[in-house]
Amino acid sequence: MRTTASKHPLLCSVVTVVVFIVALWLPAILLSYFGPGFFLTNGDYVYQGTVECFTSLIGIGFAALMGYGWIWNENGKSLGSGFLSSGYFIVISLYSLVIYIAEIAMMDEVEFNPVWQMVVFVLTVLLIGLAEETFFRGVVANLFLDKYGNDPAGVWCATISSGMVFGLMHLSNLMSSDTVGVLVQVVAACAMGMTLTAIYYRCRNIWVLILVHAFVDFCGAFYSGFIAGGSLSSTISSYEPYQVISALPYIIVTIILLRPSKMREIIALHRLSGVEDTSVGVIMPPAELKSSVKSKKSCAIAVVFAAVILLLLFGASVYAYGLY
Asked: CA nearest 120: which of 221, 17, 18?
């Protein structure tokens, strides 16, 4: 199944997005209509966390169906090495967390959520990380890398394409959040998706991505998770067009992660992906890193497509912002 799917990564990625959205929205709809009132009256994260449980389980099954069940035990790098590659995410997330805590400390009156709801918030961001990384790094990123990952230009094509699929998936948030906020989120998520994909290609350890993704969400949604009255949708709706500038550092970090000196190792690690016999786990780097003409063309198309889409999204966010 893996070989067949990787021949048509874009088509299979669209299918993956559809499955992800259905896996997210179907449990949400069923819970809204038939679920006990407890799940609907105790804040966003009790409801969201319940939904993410089902989405994660469906994601694990879907990854196995697509031939990527081995992602949970790859012959990649350690958690420590993966966290080192994720340094930018960790630093900026800690910075935002400190800002939130400082703002809360300056408030005269603060009403915190009950401790059990805080725990549910933490579990929810872990489940979000598990669900999204399973679908979009475990499946989508591998689909594109299996097709294009034999040389540097191909790795870049896979990184850009995977990131764009991840980012555009967030358009589904238009159903629950403000248009401007969602468009800004999509632009940032496209760039963020490229960086997450680059980290995955560097470490080949899906657990690193799950934990880093969860930590980013924890810090970004800290206020809504710990302070009474906050919500995930209100956080997204608060984004404004100028915040798309946050996408630029992600692009810079991605370029650093995929620098030429690391490409040989990335391609070698990819050749070991899915190999169950650890006795063949000696990494044999490719003899040379020359990109084929075909890979260069594919990469150029991906770059142009990404640039056009991101500019259109930014323009649409500015236009929509002006209507308010």
From this structure: 221
Among the listed residues 123, 134, 138, the one whose alpha carbon sits nearest the alpha carbon of residue 57: 134
Q: Assess contact for 219 and 138: CB atoms under 8 A.
A: no
Residues 126, 219: Cα–Cα separation, whole Å: 12
Q: What is the rounded CA–CA span in Å between residue 195 and residue 102?
A: 28
pTM of the shown model: 0.91
Element holding 292 (H helix, E strand): none
Q: How far apart are CA 27 and CA 31, in angstroms?
A: 6
Dist CA 154 CA 267 (whole Å)? 10
Tens place of pLDDT for every residue, the chain, 324 residues?
A: 666 777 889 999 999 999 999 999 999 999 988 888 888 788 788 999 999 999 999 999 999 999 999 999 987 888 999 999 999 999 999 999 999 889 888 887 878 889 999 999 999 999 999 999 999 999 999 999 999 988 999 999 999 999 999 999 999 888 878 888 899 999 999 999 999 999 999 999 999 999 999 999 999 888 888 887 666 666 676 788 888 898 999 999 999 999 998 998 899 888 777 654 444 445 555 566 789 999 999 999 999 999 999 999 999 999 888 876
Task: Determine the 3-state secondary structure of 26 from DSSP.
Answer: helix
* List of E strands, the chain: none
Judged by DSSP in three states, 112 sits in strand
CB count within 10 Å of CB 85 equals 23
**Distance linking the first and last C-alpha atoms of the chain:** 48
Closest CA to 225 of 110, 124, 92: 124
Taken as a whole, the chain contains a residue count of: 324
